[in-house]
């Protein structure tokens, strides 16, 4: 998909990418550094998923389970996730429609954050990758539902799961939580739109 088509054929993908870029730019400006966007920025501190903050802030602390999906730790983190979002998100949104795409994305972000809180309460976490793992599962289901070759999307899932376990400083719970949401939602969301 050509970059200019993303805004027209995948508006939610474009909107999420735009929000992530704006959040990163504001946090980096506040921090005075492109690599201290969480702890060096008031916005980053307000958005990061960190169990003690969630528990200590009452009901408003629970906003972090979604806000953290729009905050990124540094420029490399942002670029990797936005590249994946544009490439995979655009295709998923084109196949399943904007409403189903948003449901999968937000469910992946939410489940990712809940998994982090359950499995790694004291680890500060940010980024869209949990939601992206949900989209990866949906991409596999789309291939099966539409009788396309599922090997490429399956290989992408396997490669990303392997990366999760072997790369340093990766949120294992976040990635697996997002993937779990995607697995649960993938088959019904990937059904043909006219059948719903």
From TrEMBL:
GO BP term (any one): proteolysis
GO molecular function: serine-type endopeptidase activity
Entry superkingdom: Bacteria
GO cellular component: membrane
Entries under InterPro entries matching the protein: Peptidase_S54_rhomboid_dom, Rhomboid-like_sf, Rhomboid_protease_S54
Subcellular location field: Membrane
Main localization of the protein described in the UniProt heading: membrane
Keyword tags: Hydrolase, Membrane, Protease, Transmembrane, Transmembrane helix
Name under which the protein is recorded: Rhomboid family intramembrane serine protease
Organism: Corynebacterium liangguodongii
């Amino acid at each position: 998909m050509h970059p200019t088509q993303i805004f027209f054929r995948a508006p939610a993908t474009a909107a999420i990418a735009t929000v992530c870029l704006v959040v990163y730019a504001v946090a980096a400006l506040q921090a005075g550094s492109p690599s201290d966007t969480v702890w060096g920025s008031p916005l980053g501190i307000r958005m990061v998923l960190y169990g003690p903050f969630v528990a200590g802030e009452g009901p408003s602390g629970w906003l972090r389970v979604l806000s953290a999906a729009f905050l990124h730790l540094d420029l490399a983190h942002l670029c990797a996730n936005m590249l994946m979002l544009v490439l995979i998100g655009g295709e998923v949104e084109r196949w399943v429609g904007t409403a189903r795409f948003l449901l999968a994305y937000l469910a992946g972000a939410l489940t990712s954050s809940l998994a982090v809180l359950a499995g790694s309460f004291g680890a500060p976490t940010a980024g869209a990758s949990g939601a992206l793992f949900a989209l990866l599962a949906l991409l596999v289901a789309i291939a099966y539902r539409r009788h396309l070759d599922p090997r490429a999307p399956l290989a992408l899932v396997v490669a990303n799961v392997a990366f999760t376990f072997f790369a340093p400083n990766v949120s294992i719970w976040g990635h697996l939580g997002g993937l779990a949401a995607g697995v649960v939602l993938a088959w019904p969301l990937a059904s043909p739109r006219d059948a719903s």
